[in-house]
Inverse folding.
């Protein structure tokens, strides 16, 4: 009986994907920890598995080597695969797949939620009212503001669509220019320096790769407006957190909305405790709808691999942290 290890915390909510795996004759090993697994835990659980469905667990070279004798696929439940050592997988002949498009709308909606929450101080006022207060703070509108999108791929494009509906002007930085974004939404492509200098809101939607790790640092923060609000639903690694903490504390920028952190949960509460910061615990794709789509697509990849079929959405380029 083929064995699939299904680790994403919300995978088991998807009855359809569960049923698909059972119908395909899989023995399914679930993650009962309620959190992503560490390398040592994964090394134990991966042994003898034919397929691994993973969220943001530590799929290192050692994990892949432990699974290599039987492992036929690592199916990412989601799209950001920086938690998987793709080079090692490739060396061991194990395909890595993702679920493109499945989390897109959910992450875009969260990015907008964080923009609005920071601009209108919603969590802070909510906490005050619940304590019997009536502290009304003055927020700012999104309308007529400049939104800078770093990484205009699937999620970035959905954010643009929504931002335009809020009457925002959108500028973007990406190596690939999408003519449809220019034609349909009036997006203007600019350099990173121009994006930092001109944006009222900056939203990150690029993958964590060597070129982007640490891109939000002392130097880039110094180029931003004092009124700028930074939104990160991409990966914590894009940001030098100490530099962001200092920029937010000193008024170098006005606020931040953060869904992702270098370490999750964050190593210190410094940033998340600031009054001008709104956070969420890496839940960009954590909706019922995105969960169903990601689970189904990842389950299909597991089944394809066990049947000896080619993966549908393999990761092409090796990516390192
Ligand atoms: N918070 C959450 O729960 C989730 C976070 N994510 C993150 O969002 C990221 C983006 O996802 P998608 O839009 O689906 O991916 P995508 O592959 O469709 O888009 C990524 C875009 O980033 C661009 N890019 C690559 N290198 C860049 C660089 N150096 N500077 C600027 N742009 C660059 C690419 O050209 C591409 O247009 C994922 O890599 C993942 O890290 C994804 C899903 C859920
Ligand atoms: O598995 C998760 O909980 C998060 C997924 C994610 O961040 C991604 O799709 O890149």
């Amino acid at each position: 009986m083929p064995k699939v290890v299904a680790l994403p915390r919300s995978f088991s909510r998807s009855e359809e994907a569960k049923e698909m795996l059972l119908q395909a004759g899989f023995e399914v090993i679930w993650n009962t920890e309620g959190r992503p697994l560490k390398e040592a835990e994964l090394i134990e659980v991966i042994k003898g598995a034919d397929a691994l469905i993973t969220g943001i667990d530590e799929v290192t070279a050692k994990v892949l080597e432990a699974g290599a004798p039987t492992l036929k696929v690592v199916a990412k439940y989601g799209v950001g695969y920086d938690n998987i050592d793709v080079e090692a997988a490739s060396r061991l002949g194990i395909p890595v797949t993702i679920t493109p498009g499945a989390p897109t709308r959910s992450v875009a909606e969260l990015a907008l939620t964080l923009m609005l929450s920071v601009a209108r101080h919603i969590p802070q006022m909510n906490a005050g009212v619940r304590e019997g207060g009536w502290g009304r703070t003055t927020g700012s509108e999104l309308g007529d503001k400049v939104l800078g999108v770093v990484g205009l791929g699937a999620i970035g494009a959905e954010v643009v669509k929504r931002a335009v509906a809020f009457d925002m002007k959108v500028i973007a930085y990406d190596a690939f220019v999408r003519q449809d974004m220019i034609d349909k939404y009036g997006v203007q492509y600019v350099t990173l320096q121009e994006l930092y200098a001109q944006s009222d809101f900056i939203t990150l939607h690029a993958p964590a790769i060597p070129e982007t790790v640490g891109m939000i640092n002392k130097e880039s923060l110094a180029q931003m407006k004092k009124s700028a609000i930074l939104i990160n639903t991409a990966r914590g690694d894009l940001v030098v957190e100490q530099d962001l903490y200092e920029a937010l504390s000193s008024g170098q920028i006005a606020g931040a909305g953060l869904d992702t952190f270098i370490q999750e949960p964050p190593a210190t509460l410094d940033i998340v405790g600031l009054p001008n910061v709104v956070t969420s615990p890496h839940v960009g794709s954590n909706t019922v709808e995105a969960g169903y789509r990601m689970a189904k697509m990842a389950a299909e990849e597991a089944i394809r691999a066990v049947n000896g079929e080619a993966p549908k959405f393999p990761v092409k380029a090796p990516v390192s942290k």
User: Anything to note?
Assistant: DSSP finds twelve helices and twelve strands in the chain. The chain has two domains: 3-101+287-307, 104-279.
